[in-house]
Task: structure prediction
Amino acid sequence: MNGRFAAWLRLAAAVAALAIVSACAGQTRSAVPAGTTEPDKFLFDKGTDALNKKKWLTAREFFKQVTETYTASPYRPDAKLGIGDTYLGEGTAEALVLAINEFKEFLSFYPTHRRADYAQLKLGMAHFRQMRHPQRDQTETREAVKEFEAFVARYPGSSLLPEAKQHLRDARDRLSESDYLVGYFYYRQKWYPGAVDRFKNVLKEDPEYTGRDAVYYYLADALVRLKLEAEALPYLEKLIAEFEMSAYLADAQRRVTELKTQLQAKTSGD
Result:
């Protein structure tokens, strides 16, 4: 099953789930008491209260009444975000697809809204929540990285920036770990040239990868096994300089001493 067809199936399932939810809408519709002076605010407040209580379906229907009935309401943009939040709160695969749609629509309809940064963050989170283990397909991880990078580029002054950066780091770590594990597989299979290429690519693509101490260590070892001791030494020295608590630290320190001795001996012999 290719990625495009799988995505179509997920969207179809999400739309089907939405149809089921819509069938229950009558339980909440027409809930505005007669004589209410600000019915849009009444519905929005009801939706917000339900959202805070994690009553996703109830909140969604209140918010939908605002967006569908009061199209000129000043509460409509926030209600649109509220709908996305209910899907994100549900957290099912189908709901997360629908959350992505809601937040994308918000950014399309209200690109300069005061809460556009919030929508961008939540769009990234809807992908982030679907990230798979490092050994599995990383399509959603790449989408999360893309959306969080867009946040950092578009909203450098946002109060949500630290949260977006942390999630971006976590998503990048997932991608880098996936690549590292491929390199480690090559290393275990003793295909050292392949391991070296993969490890170097991890460091090139993500120099801030939080697990790069393992990359340094196994890259250096693979280089040593290829008789490239002089090239291996700097990676071990980087490990020692950048990681005070690494599980590889003691071995790296020992191997630096050994490699320097070997290289000095070679130099003297020459």
